[in-house]
UniProtKB/TrEMBL annotation:
Its EC number is 1.1.1.100. Keywords: Oxidoreductase. PANTHER family: DEHYDROGENASES, SHORT CHAIN, ESTRADIOL 17-BETA-DEHYDROGENASE 8-RELATED. It comes from Halanaeroarchaeum sulfurireducens. This is 3-oxoacyl-[acyl-carrier-protein] reductase. One of its GO terms (molecular function) is 3-oxoacyl-[acyl-carrier-protein] reductase (NADPH) activity. Belongs to the short-chain dehydrogenases/reductases (SDR) family. Transmembrane segments: none annotated. It is an enzyme of class 1 (oxidoreductase). Gene3D superfamilies: NAD(P)-binding Rossmann-like Domain.
Length: 248
């Protein structure tokens, strides 16, 4: 098992929200962090925050829909830190709860491209590095409760997250025990993508056992657990971090 203080974690969509929280969580544990995002300034700011706090991080531009960009992320990560131990496929976009009959081809393709094709591209590129040596590589995909039930997003978003959970299971089946793949399924989370939806988040979570929406740090702590040796026997699962949204 790779111990977190000795690990290298690559996190996509890490310039803000849950990805940013993950970057700080791993850095606080002593990991070297690669902050990946299409928002170069945002990624650089997160890497600087980590460095200012005594951590080790680098910012890398990465477009998960572009295979050349993804290959560059892997190459730059290995060049800087020597390896990749943990890959967090966190980059994602919403679809504004758009039903199938109202979804344009552009919306559908964009959501599938980022949310489902992106993790595939990143994982495929990183697999040879994750499989190197005698230590177990870790892949953690940010799915959603929308990957388990309808109503957590629109047609494209729900489809993409269902697919991502399936991808996670197949990774575990095909590459375990060399690769330990799992997913997290957040419910309502206050992030940069949802900052205009706070009233909606409050309404959606009013009847849940937690009675509130989550902070990004609460998701990041579960991701950190899944990456740690404390979760050494957790393979191919999709962990709900939803305040009990799906309890019924």
């Amino acid at each position: 098992m790779v111990s977190l203080p000795d690990s290298v974690a690559v996190i996509t969509g890490a310039a803000s929200g849950m990805g940013k929280a993950m970057a700080h969580e791993f850095a606080d544990e002593g990991a070297s962090v690669v902050v990946v995002d299409v928002d170069e300034d945002g990624a650089a700011a997160v890497a600087t925050e980590i460095a200012d706090g005594g951590g080790d991080a680098m910012a890398v531009y990465g477009d998960v829909t572009d295979t050349d960009s993804v290959e560059s992320v892997v190459e730059e990560s290995v060049e800087e830190f020597g390896t990749i131990d943990i890959l967090c496929n966190n980059a994602g976009i919403l679809d504004d709860f758009t039903p199938a009959g109202e979804a344009s081809d552009d919306l559908w393709n964009a959501v599938i491209d980022v949310n489902l094709n992106g993790p595939f591209h990143m994982t495929r590129a990183a697999l040879p590095v994750l499989q190197e040596g005698n230590e177990e590589g870790v892949v953690i995909n940010t799915a959603s409760i929308a990957g388990k039930v309808a109503g957590g997003g629109g047609a494209a978003y729900t489809t993409s997250k269902h697919g991502l959970i399936g991808f996670t299971k197949q990774l575990s089946h095909d590459y375990g025990p060399d690769i330990r793949a799992n997913a997290v399924c957040p419910g309502a989370v206050a992030t940069g993508m949802t900052e205009d939806m706070i009233e909606d988040l409050e309404a959606m979570t009013e009847g849940t056992p937690a009675g509130r929406y989550a902070k990004p740090e609460e998701i990041a702590r579960v991701v950190r657990y899944l990456a740690s040796d404390e979760a050494s026997f957790v393979h191919g699962t999709a962990v709900n971090v939803d305040g009990g949204w799906l309890v019924d």
